[in-house]
Design brief:
By secondary structure, the chain is of the alpha/beta class. The protein is built from eight helices and seven strands; from the N terminus they run αααααααβαββββββ. The chain has helices spanning 11-31, 33-36, 38-45, 47-50, 63-76, 78-95, 99-111, 121-124, and strands spanning 116-119, 135-140, 143-153, 161-168, 173-179, 185-187, 202-209. Strands 1, 2, 3, 4, 5, 6 and 7 form a seven-stranded mixed sheet that branches. The chain is globular and about 55 Å long.
Length: 214
């Protein structure tokens, strides 16, 4: 998608991607961009790699180039664009993590070999009025355990991992990567949204879930 120039997407490849997404848009709106094949198109076009640093298996496109590509994606499929922004947010959190985590996850995410999403609304807006953390990271003898809820997770039932944030015992915030099949993880049904129902946004419960990485 970005080739040797990370400052701008290749017009021909971006146009071909937009055409493919437009064809898939009806199914993406109903079943989600994961089931429709839209995410495969993102990967094949090299768009996913643009969000990943060049030293971590991606092509490290500029912010301007990524914005141009996102606008084009949204013109063809708003559902796919929303899902892509959540994927990108998760990748950026992983990119700030330990070197081992970066090396293990980012090249696979850039290639589209696995999918991820982010669930961090509980840290900034959702359920903050309740006076207690919606999701807590509790130090236990066997390691950290996550307890509580992520109220909003796009693609919760369609991805391989969820990148989330929780409040620790000392009041600080930490981020975690959780496999979709982790014991104690419960994905609720997709929320009946007025728009973007194909984003498969759902609440996710954590009952003493052991994260894969921090």
């Amino acid at each position: 998608m970005f080739g040797s120039d990370p400052s701008t997407p290749d017009p021909a490849r971006l146009s071909a991607l937009v055409d493919a997404l437009a064809r898939l848009a009806p199914r993406s709106r109903d079943a989600g961009p994961w089931a429709s094949g839209a995410f495969e198109q993102f990967a094949d076009a090299g768009l996913l790699a643009g969000f990943v640093p060049a030293d971590a298996g991606g092509t490290g496109a500029s912010e301007g180039a990524l914005l141009d590509a996102l606008v084009a994606v949204a013109s063809a499929c708003l559902t796919g664009a929303l899902a892509l922004t959540q994927w990108a947010s998760a990748c950026r959190i992983v990119a700030l993590g330990p070197a081992e985590l970066r090396a293990r996850m980012l090249p696979r995410l850039a290639r589209g070999d696995e999918t991820t999403t982010v669930g961090i609304a509980q840290l900034t807006t959702s359920r903050r009025h309740l006076g207690a953390p919606a999701l807590r990271a509790v130090a236990c003898p066997g390691g950290t355990r996550l307890r509580g809820t992520c109220p909003w997770v796009t693609g919760a039932d369609a991805v391989d991992t969820i990148v989330t944030g929780a409040e620790c015992d000392d009041g600080t915030t930490a981020f975690f990567v959780v496999p979709a099949g982790a014991a104690g993880l419960t994905v609720g049904p997709p929320l009946p949204l007025v728009a973007l129902a194909g984003s498969r946004t759902a609440a996710v419960g954590f009952d003493d879930v052991a994260p894969a990485a921090t």
